[in-house]
Amino acid sequence: MIQLKNFQQDVVDKLLEFIAPEYGINNLTIKAPTGAGKTIMLLSWIDEYIRSTGDNIAFVWFTPGAGELEEQSQDKANSFSSIKAQSVDDALLNGFERGSATFINYERVVGKKSKAMLTDSERDNLVDKIEKAFQEDRHFIVIIDEAHRNDTNKAREIISRFKASKTVRVSATIDDPNTPDIMEFYEVLEESVIASGLITKAVVVNEEIDISLDEDEFAILFDAAEKKRQQIVASYIDNGVTGINPLVLVQLPDESTPDLSLRIEKYIQETMNKTYEDGKLGIWLSEQKRNVIDVNKLDNKVEYLIIKQAIATGWDAPRAKILVKIRENMGEQFTVQTLGRIRRMPQPWIGHYNVDVLDNAYLYTFDTDFLNGVFAQGAAVAPTPLLNLKDRAKSLKLTSERVINYDEVLNEKMILNNIYEGLKKRFNFTDDLEENYLILKNQGYTLGNEIKTTFKQGRFDVLANADRLQDRERYVKANYQDNRIDLLHAFHELDRVIHLPVSKVEAMLKRFFLWRGYSLVTSILKLDANEWTAFILNNWRALREEFRKIDVAQAIQGSLDLDNIQKNDFTIPLTERYTYNPKLPDTKMVQTNAYQEYTTASIAVRPSIVERLMERWLEEHAEIVDFVYKNGDKGPKYFSLVYSTNGGVSHFYPDFIIQMKNGDIYIIETKGGEDVKGRDKNIDSYAPAKYEALKKYAATYDIKWAFVRDMNEELFYLNSGEWVDEMVADKWQPIIKLFKSIEEENRMSEN
Questions:
Q1: SS3 of 59, please?
Q2: Mean pLDDT for the chain?
């Protein structure tokens, strides 16, 4: 089974929730960056739904015409055992069977007259197959891939034939329709996809272009692109990455003249000595295709592939790392899919290599309109050039912690036992299962064989007064089979804090609460299947909170006594690349940063307000600060500590390492604080465990430290005693007190 990333599992959970018949909305729009793995997410959802329910359902998946995307999707679907994947031609023969997923290229049903398009008799046959499915009480769920591209009357007409009970639209560029009563909008944030390692950390624009080289744009762009390609090849070798031949995409304007492609072909073949005959040059245009078979495979010989925008949507070639965007006469508008072709990491199971040249994608172009679109849509956040470390920061040395063997983690049996012992201690459970039943009932847990639901009742005159409606409770009989989708949703919510796959979560809950005719060592209740179903659905939120507390408690304990740690010398990397806002006016050099040429434009794009406030505060107090290093968040080249959870061990990367002018070194981790209404903005449930890990490290190595949070745009710190969630005044102190002694020393020396 494919192991989904956290954000991908969130999408699957959302789709499972959405597909339930009682869910009030029948249209869902999902916006996900190119490279997020939307095909795998959708297939995982379809597979889980078919596998877990007895629903009489068929899925129909519409894909855009270019790039043979429907074949790519169908091939991937064949790896899921529960899905009967088929093409529209298969559907014409076999119909829309129960549990099937039919992949239909728009060009087959709504395109211009072509050999690929369905004949009139085939269209009639397709309609007959749809009607036959209706006669067998089958209902359809329709998926519209790259929905923005084929929103035409013809497309809507064929889609309407399926009378879909639910419709899912997916795209990298679709906007929120702002019609929540009709269509729900769900967005996958690009930051979460980058953090998962599926796409590059950034897109670097026109790096190391030598404008003195030649007046010929081709020479300038292709010289820079080839140098970068050779750097990537060398870096793969240096880092032991084999079987990947980096690809340069050369994109022509869609409306370009034939002469332009001829000129580019001539330049690449005659000047760069990469030809069709030696297999290093390929071309994929509607009127001309050469060396395109298996061009997307990682070790394919083609080094340069000439394309137009049309291939860009949906086409998948993870080895593509560089895009040369050619202009002709007038500029061309940027589309997100264009850069999506070069943003995929070639080995998603590995993710980022934590090597700068390999973890970025590269764009070379003089097309001003195109570049303006890139920055306007945030598709390239303009990474800085490589910044050099200042001399005064080169002597810093710390001890970094890493896990020796990441696979040596707590096994499933230990996880289960830890949770059982935690529940037993929390509720004072005994071996008497009837007594345990009363204990939970007295603690407010809902028991019995009915599921409690709520509905609104009352009257309102205008929509603004709808909140005056009263909540009423309604109870319905639970059924183990009929409530499978609801149970799956609950299991997915629980697996986030248990660190086990869904199937293991279900097995654990059955061991605890389901009666099998005999008692287990870990039995807590003796419920039948329907009572167990009702118990889980009524109480999963309360159980999740209990499991989370147990997990955090294990994390704190584990952080105090953890073996299997490797200790390495850490020095600040000699070069680093940060992102920045190229449009920001009045940027200034940050004198306290450890790197030369680091500016306030990089501080401005930090996603966390507490990080921005911290950097600015330190710059405002430059008289006491020697240098500030903003640590990375993944990989062995950055400073890391180790902490444990009930599910195993994890690294964490403190945000800042600060050396003061008196020689003191501070390690600072920032977390969200409280908003103006006193609500907690810290979303990291493992903050207490990380706090203990940093406290232990600081005591071991005699380093100063603190956790810093924000409230009302002011900074407060905690570095003594136990972690405290609430930012109470006697615990969380103003940041100035953390450095007060240094300020006093500084004033005395001035006097």
A1: strand
A2: 83
